Amino acid sequence: MMEIAIRFRKALLADLPFLLQLRLETMEEHLKNEGIHLSREEHEERILDKIKNAKIVLNKNQEIGFLKVIENQEGCEIEQFQIARAYQGKGIGKRILLQLIQQANQDKTLISLSVLKKNKAQLLYEKVGFVKVGADENSFFMEKKWEAGN
Asked: Which of 31, 102, 131, 134 lies at a C-alpha separation of 20 to 30 Å from 117?
């Protein structure tokens, strides 16, 4: 069994090669399923947009994921969240989401996100309490409101 010791560090421009590889590994299939085709440059633009709000997810000292959370008037939006395939299904994403939810409950704020309709990550989001509040052609919009007493 794999030992999990999650921590975060600030994402840097020097992380772009890792982040591009991670994005292609975790997102390309879902984007294609939705009929969305992005160039390498478009992927890089999405990674680098608001990079100051991004963190690298580490297991011990191994880079295993990416989390970009943007503060807004209602609370925060999870703009990008990717965990490397080798680490999916091990409770890491759930653990990170529960930490974000705990902080939102303390701050009495909302967490929002969008997920591609054919991305199974929406099942994880539903499992931790996110609900669908809207949709467009390719994505569901989901929210998790803070809970009194938490």
From this structure: 102
CA distance 111 to 95: 15
Find the domain containing 23 and state its range: 6-144
41 pLDDT above the threshold of 90 = yes
Q: What is the CATH number of the domain that holds 88?
A: 3.40.630.30
Q: What percent of the chain has pLDDT over 90?
A: 89
User: How many domains does the chain divide into?
Assistant: 1
